[in-house]
Design goal:
The protein is of the alpha/beta class and 433 residues long. The protein has one domain: Luciferase-like domain (TIM Barrel, Alpha-Beta Barrel). Helices cover 40% and strands 13% of the residues. It has 15 helices and 14 strands. It has an 8-stranded parallel beta barrel, surrounded by 5 helices. Strands 5-6 form a two-stranded antiparallel ribbon. β3, α4 and β4 form a beta-alpha-beta unit. α13 crosses α14. The longest helix is centred in the middle third of the chain and has 19 residues. It is globular, with a radius of gyration of 22 Å. InterPro entries: Diverse_substr_monoxygenases, Luciferase-like_dom, Luciferase-like_sf, NTA_MOA. Keywords: Flavoprotein, FMN, Monooxygenase, Oxidoreductase. One of its GO terms (molecular function) is nitrilotriacetate monooxygenase activity. Pfam families: Bac_luciferase (PF00296). Its EC number is 1.14.14.10.
């Protein structure tokens, strides 16, 4: 039996491949390039594009901004205006920008989500993050970030609050009755009078209910508190693609957590990060991977990237020795665990060139070969799909075309992914199969 699965795309609103031969050279940030990307993804019938974000220039690698700025790791633009632009330039593709519960006031975020879901005609989502960097906290008047588990306790209360704000208007509160002269029925709009440990809000939201009523919620929950939050609220979860066994174990755990609180697990789709490399022949694809992963600038770029995410200075470690066993962080613990993996005998260089921060599952070959491999992995895992991204975390038109016009048609021929949209709103895309 064919296991049909979903496809999403993981995007950074940074300069495209400015130092390569297939990009725009980073000429501008009008968003035009990303609207082109979104239209290509819509043509390939992807469920959504998820736009990552960070709120700082990192000094984690080498205790300096040099490498972050040199490689363009964290200089990036706000994803929400781009999401609006993408929504206006497409008609079916879902768009999910990242916004942090640590720094957005809850009322402001709830109102923003509702507004953009109207503009996107029900195709808007919110990637819920707690932020994991002290440098971000310092941009908002704090000395350092809250401790990891407290961040998630605050996020859980934050989610309760914004959920009540979205529900402060009953679905049929807007009557628009010409005869009675009533726009909205005041008996169907309610204050929420929320008062928790961390947040307080009167409500109601002063925006009318959006097409989805609440945005589609995405989250990358890896740690126990993160998994609990995702089980409660997420419509789609982002997870590293480590091994088939760990992928299946993660999905099974999330399903068990959802069932324990009365949620239907089929209402939440787990998408695994992957970076397929395709070419006309397997030899060409392997040569391409080797060329990318052995570039010294790639190694430095990736170490600067993982340092900024985990708040660990990986410049202090010998590239050709295994990492210390006792690495801990107040940053993104799930990302750290995915990066170091279970085989602690690997050197730091092997970790960087073996994962690309996105996948330990080596999808590399012709489009047909990779399509078969992806289908086999999904069959063993049980679902639900892949969140694709460029292996070097910086996109160019060539890689995009290889995926949308090479790999995806091969997947469609096998009945593994959709060939047409049958729904119009994002949550419905995810629940279609």
């Amino acid at each position: 039996m064919t296991t049909k699965f979903h496809l999403g795309w993981f995007l950074n609103f940074v300069a495209d491949e400015w130092n390569g031969t297939w990009g725009d050279g980073g000429r501008d940030f009008t968003g035009d390039f990303y609207v082109e990307v979104a239209r290509a993804l819509e043509r390939a019938k992807f469920d959504y594009v998820l736009i990552e974000d960070k709120l700082m220039v990192s000094t984690a690698y080498g205790d300096t901004m040099e490498y972050d700025l040199k490689h363009g790791v964290n200089p990036k633009h706000d994803p929400v205006p781009l999401a609006v632009l993408i929504a206006a330039g497409t008609s079916r593709l879902g768009v999910i920008p990242t916004m942090s519960t640590s720094f957005y006031p809850p009322f402001l975020l709830a109102r923003l989500c509702s507004t953009v879901d109207h503009i996107a005609r029900g195709r808007f989502g919110w990637n819920v993050v707690t932020s994991a960097e002290d440098r971000s906290a310092q941009n908002f008047g704090m000395d350092k970030l809250y401790e990891h588990d407290e961040r998630y306790a605050r996020a859980a209360e934050y989610m309760d609050l914004v959920s009540k704000l979205w529900e402060s208007w009953e679905p049929d509160a807007v009557e628009r009755d010409y005869m009675t002269g009533v726009y909205a029925n005041h008996k169907k709009v309610h204050t929420i009078d929320f008062e928790g440990k961390y947040y307080k809000s009167r409500g109601p939201l002063n925006t009318a209910p959006s097409p989805q009523y609440r945005p589609t919620i995405a989250q990358a929950g890896s740690s126990p508190p993160g998994r609990a939050l995702a089980a409660q609220h997420a419509d789609t979860i982002v997870s590293p693609a480590d091994s088939v066994e760990s992928m299946k174990a993660y999905r099974d755990d999330m399903h068990a957590r959802m069932e324990a609180i009365g949620r239907d697990p089929s209402h939440c789709k787990v998408l695994y990060l992957a970076s397929p490399i395709v070419a006309d022949t397997r030899e060409e694809a392997l040569a391409k991977r080797e060329r990318w992963l052995t570039d010294p600038m790639y190694v430095e770029y990736m170490l600067a990237e993982i340092s900024s995410i985990t708040e660990i200075d990986f410049r202090q470690f010998d590239l050709d020795k295994p990492l210390p066993e006792d690495l801990t962080t107040n940053g993104e613990r799930g990302t750290l665990a995915a990066f170091v993996g279970k085989d602690r005998t690997k050197t730091l260089r092997q970790l960087v060139t073996g994962s690309g921060l996105s996948s330990h599952t080596p999808f590399c070959g012709t489009p047909d070969e990779v399509a078969d491999e992806m289908g086999e992995v999904m069959e063993q895992v049980g679902g639900d799909g892949f969140l694709l991204t460029s292996p070097v975390l910086r996109l160019n038109r060539r890689y995009l075309t290889e995926i949308t016009d090479g790999l995806v048609p091969a997947l469609q021929r096998r009945g593994l992914v959709r060939s047409e949209y049958t729904t119009t709103m994002l949550r419905d895309h995810l629940r279609e199969f």
